[in-house]
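User: My collaborator sent over this chain with a note saying "see what the structure looks like." That's all I know about it. Can you take a look?
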Amino acid sequence: MARPRAGEETGRQRLLDAAWSALEHTDGRTDRISVSSLCAAAHCTAPTLYHHFDDVPALLYAAGQRAFAAWSNDMAARVGAERDPALRLRRRARAYLDWAQANPRAYQVLFGSFPAVAAAPTPGAGPGAGFLPLRDDVAALTGLPAEDPAVIPVALAHWAAVHGIASLAIQTTQVPAGWWDTALDVLVEALLARR
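Assistant: Without extra context I'll predict from the sequence alone. Here is the result:
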């Protein structure tokens, strides 16, 4: 493989930054994102875009995957080295809620209805690597192996509930902030009661 010429990687990064910014500012509406708008924002030409990506959907998907990776790293940092799976679940849920409230537009793009970002590259491949730590914690709490088919629905239910709380929290200002925290605790307690 040839070495990239000077500025090529920078061009790729500028395109990824431009694509993510476009996704946030259009609320994930890909029909509002054009090659010309992306290239103008990235200070490059269309051939540069097509040098790095097959097409605009591929660029948008790569930008979404980069954002998912950053989000996942942030979640892992917030959970830290805690060994207790119940505390890890609490920390992960709290981090998810905090991140959604601090980044509502990015949250809507990552976890909303934008299929090019949210979809796994292979249909049926599962919810993705960001789901695996949650699955592992649920397995530890239920005393089942992580590969046990009974673990996945419980982990999905927990994720769906936390996602619902986060989605409501960024759209509903009438609910006192402490209630969201209490709701997260109720979820973990319900999971603990399954043991």
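A starting point for your reply to your collaborator: Residues 7 and 13 are 10 Å apart (CA to CA).
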